[in-house]
Amino acid sequence: MKVGVTGGIGSGKSTVCRLFAQRGIAVYDSDAAAKRLMGEDAALRRGLTARFGAETFRGGELDRGYLAAIVFSDPQALADLNALVHPAVMRDFDAWAARQQGSYVILESAILFEAGLEGSVDKTLAVLAPRELRIERTCRRDGCDAAQVARRIAAQLDDDTVSARADYVLVNITEAELAPAVAEFDRIFSHEAQRY
Ligand code: ATP
């Protein structure tokens, strides 16, 4: 069974996924995979070069600054980039999932719903936290300013939409409650996986 874990900036999804990993569950980090595949997947590299030009790669290495500058100001370019990257990530995820032993695996993605990736998983778990806590945690972690985090939160799907689309919701408030909550979801997912 494939479980998608998602959540907005500072919600704690990476922390939650780390706790699942500590319980022996295989976790696929789709952000890291996207970065890796843009560097090493030949078909994806060809697609990126065809759409964005030979300048996309400088000395064989992806020029992130070049690509970021294009997609920042051009929504169609961003959509085209996603249309190239997401299928490559999902192909890699499926191949990775087939190699895992456990009864279920986790796909960690900040943009599971935004990118329409929920069709690639069987169940979804959304990690939510109050806005102020997300801002405080992110600023403490990254040292960035609160207004910038607030803008990023505003640009992401709101909690009501995420809750409505997710199969399960984990509200991440205190540190003490988090590990028991993950243990409970691990029990639920292990049980559900018997049907797959
Ligand atoms: P992003 O999308 O920005 O990567 P994220 O959803 O993956 O964020 P995390 O990195 O897991 O969020 O958490 C953000 C910060 O908050 C981290 O420094 C983490 O250690 C801390 N944190 C997460 N959950 C809790 C909690 N329950 N209590 C205290 N701190 C927490």
Task: Please outline what is shown here.
This protein is 58% helix and 14% strand. By secondary structure, it is an alpha/beta fold. The strands form two sheets. The chain has a five-stranded parallel sheet with strand order 2-5-1-6-7, sandwiched between helices. A two-stranded antiparallel sheet has the order 3-4.
What does this molecule look like?
- This protein is an alpha/beta fold.
- The protein has 2 domains: 1-25 and 103-196, P-loop containing nucleotide triphosphate hydrolases (Rossmann fold, 3-Layer(aba) Sandwich); 31-101, Rossmann fold, CATH 3.40.50.300.
- It contains 9 helices and 7 strands.
- It has helices at residues 13-22, 30-40, 42-52, 64-72, 75-98, 131-142, 146-155, 159-165, 175-193; strands at 2-6, 26-29, 57-58, 61-62, 105-108, 123-128, 168-171.
- The longest helix has 24 residues, at 75-98.
- The protein is globular and about 50 Å long.
- The mean pLDDT is 95.
- Bound molecules: adenosine-5'-triphosphate.
- Adenosine-5'-triphosphate binds at residues 7, 9-15, 110, 137-138, 141, 172, 174-175, 178.
